[in-house]
Write the structure tokens for this entry.
Amino acid sequence: MTDEFYVGYFPKSPKGIARIAAAGSVAILVAGLTAGVLLAVRQPSFASSRFEFGADRDYAGDLENWPAPMLLTADARYLLVAPGKHGLVIANELIGRKVHLRGSLIERGADRMLEVERDSIRAETSESNPAPAPPRVDLGEIRLTGEIVDTKCYLGVMNPGEGKVHRGCAARCIAGGVPPAFAVRDATGEVRTLLLIGTDHKPIGQQLAGFAAEPVEISGRLSRSGSSFVLETDPSRIRWQR
């Protein structure tokens, strides 16, 4: 208890009040710094992904269009997209042929994509036959919970390319033709990227844009083509997980 009294227009406060004010200021400062450190430590780390923006390179392989535009090379499978928030449209006469193209690499873990330079796709003029497309392996009906993402941003163009902070961008990319995917965790806790396609084997991005970046449950039929996992579904089989 103290009889000291301070009025704001006095040039200095009494010593007892000054000590209390100083101690309180230090305590508030320490609490603020501690809270900041704890928030930074608990913040999830960014995914190990990258986008080689502007670093176009030459690629060659077989051009496929199922479940999405892809380039199959001797050692990898690349999803293909156009610059900006657009999917890549492939001329019918190029599907199934050996081609050369230029593109910038986008990758996240084992998943790879190329942002293809406009008008760079050229079919080989030789008589060499393309390698046969890998067989589709039916893995049966499943029901999974995860997040619908646009593959371009998710695989490396944006970081983070998922979650509510990315919802608007993901919706626009998917509506623009960027292949949608379903990001889920398998039994080991590893995140898997399942490409999404309609039950009629046609793109359904326009119908999925509104579900982007939200937790949802999807029922459908899972298959594997090479190293790509594909989930065939219908928008009516998607349920919100609030």
Notes: The first strand starts at residue 49 and ends at 51.
